[in-house]
Specification:
- This protein has 271 residues and is mainly alpha-helical.
- Helices cover 77% and strands 0% of the residues.
- The chain is built from 13 helices and no strands.
- Helix 4 crosses helix 5 (89-96) and helix 10 crosses helix 11 (212-230).
- It is elongated and about 65 Å long.
- The chain starts with a helix and ends with a helix.
Length: 271
């Protein structure tokens, strides 16, 4: 039995040549699992290329910005002349030369696009109308002159060349017929200017700046600058000219300042 078991055990062990062959086979199998040097490099290059492809190319970023700018410019022009209800998204995209889906992609809706257009108008006003004297500065010692300065600055902005006709029409349209974005224009442009003139008018007249008399007085003074923008076309036709000239603007401004003096003097005497 012992001899038989020994023979069986002997038969289980592979012969020396076979054992070597098995080891060689396993080594070859492991070797085959590893990519060749050229393939390994190719795989690394492919991975790097994939990562590279995920990053937007610089050239693609510029067209995206151009698309948004085109929409804003076209929308401002169309909304100023016909309002939001008179312009379709298809016409907006067509005249801007962009895909219809770009409106929802960049702005979400036509209304949101209009809000973005108004935001640009507000930014233009802020950039050009720096704070005028009268907010606790030493220049507030002369309130009447400061009233004329504030109104004159607003007149120069509305009727001069610091704001485009399109942006001016957009703001005037909201003043005449307020929509959901009027709050932005009121809070960022009209209310601050109105309050500043009220403070100055109150200092000049000795009345309460929040009294009905001062608020109406402020509206009368402030309205002069706005009126020459709203009724610009009527005045140009009556004078048989096509545009406000620098000389005409100076003449109008002189009349506005004289009116301010007369109105404030009369209010001071009545107090």
């Amino acid at each position: 039995m012992k001899d038989t078991e020994a023979q069986t055990f002997k038969n289980r062990r592979p012969a020396a040549g076979k054992e070597k062959t098995m080891k060689d086979t396993e080594a070859q199998t492991f070797k085959n699992r590893r990519p060749a040097a050229g393939k390994e490099k190719t795989m690394k290059d492919t991975g790097a290329q994939t990562v590279k492809n995920r990053r937007p190319a610089t050239g693609k970023e510029k067209p995206m910005k151009n698309t948004k700018a085109k929409l804003l410019k076209t929308a401002a022009r169309l909304f100023a002349s016909r309002g939001t209800e008179g312009v379709s998204t298809r016409e907006l995209a067509g005249q801007a030369g962009v895909n219809l889906c770009a409106i929802s992609y960049y702005f979400g809706s036509k209304q949101k696009l209009y809000e973005a257009v108004i935001d640009e108008v507000i930014d233009t006003v802020r950039q050009n109308l720096s704070p005028a004297p009268g907010n606790g500065t030493p220049a507030a010692d002369n309130p009447r002159e400061n009233v004329k300065t504030v109104i004159g600055r607003f007149f120069d902005f509305l009727c001069g060349d610091k704001i485009s006709d399109v942006q001016a029409r957009l703001m005037i349209n909201e003043i005449i017929s307020p929509s959901s974005v009027y709050d932005k224009i009121y809070q960022n442009i009209l209310e601050p200017a109105h309050r500043q003139i009220s403070r100055l008018a109150a200092q000049e007249t000795g009345a309460d700046e929040n009294s009905p008399q001062v608020l109406i007085l402020t509206h009368t003074l402030f309205g002069q600058a706005v009126m020459f923008r709203i009724h610009k076309e009527a005045l140009l036709r009556r004078m048989k000219i096509k545009q406000y000239t620098p000389e005409l603007l100076n003449e109008i401004k002189k009349h506005i300042e004289e009116n301010c003096d007369a109105i404030l003097e009369q209010a001071r005497r009545q107090k």
